[in-house]
Predict the structure of V-type proton ATPase subunit G.
Amino acid sequence: MVSAGLCVASAQNSAGIQTLLDAEREAQKIVQQAREYRTKRIRDAKSEAQKEIEEYRNQKEQEFKKFEAEHSSGYKKAEEDANKEAEVKLQEIKDAGNSKGAKVVEDLISALTDVKPEASEKILSQA
């Protein structure tokens, strides 16, 4: 009867060990599923963050373009005004050159051809 008791105890131990092994396998499956879920959530969170960053970047670029368009028109107007003013001044210079250019050329030629030699004061003081 002792051997029958050992067999029953051994069978119970074997069944208990098998139950523990099954529980360990089930726990490993649960842990593996949790790891996979966590990894998936991290990937999803990273993807969502990238989308939010891209949306924010696009929003700020649009705001900047709008701001630039609103404020650069003043610069364009100032630049156009400066260009018009420069054109007016250039035209005034051209007109002055056209109207007085002949007189200036005549005065230059006269100054070059009508030479009146005079001794400098240094030379006169040394003599």
In short: The helical segments are 2-113, 121-126. The mean pLDDT is 86. DSSP finds two helices and no strands in the chain.
